[in-house]
Amino acid sequence: MQEIRCKVCSKLLGRVPKATAFEIEMKCPRCKSVRIYNKEALEAQG
Ligand SMILES: [Zn+2]
């Protein structure tokens, strides 16, 4: 699993499977910053 952490205060916001691509807007409950987090699916290596 890969962790999604707040880019401002590093609070853990959620977890997603490593191979999952996502683009999600999340509001941090601690520092109230709203950021869009996205990741492309990882390609298998080797
Ligand atoms: Zn935060």
UniProtKB/TrEMBL annotation:
Q: Looking at the keywords, is DNA-binding present?
A: yes
Keywords from the UniProt entry = DNA-binding
Q: What is a single molecular function from GO for this protein?
A: DNA binding
* InterPro entries, A to Z: Translation_reg_Com
Pfam families under this entry?
Answer: Zn_ribbon_Com
Q: What is this protein called?
A: Com family DNA-binding transcriptional regulator
